[in-house]
Design brief:
Layout (H helix, E strand, L loop, with lengths): L1 H13 L23 H4 L1 H9 L20
Amino acid sequence: KQGIFFNILNQRNLKKLPTIITTNSEVQVLPFDIPGLTEYIGGAACSRLKEHGLKVICMAGSDYRNRGIVE
């Protein structure tokens, strides 16, 4: 799975295409790691993300998919 993420991000990087990734995980950008994302997409893919600038936008709110669900 991590190899697939790397290949996608690498091809987008080579073509200078923008990339948006969404996640429900808490993500923090550190100089050599992106905890919350590295474990999922792998270190090489995270490195590609950070290569040309990475901007993390945190959004808060309830999950709209869970609206109307009665447990």
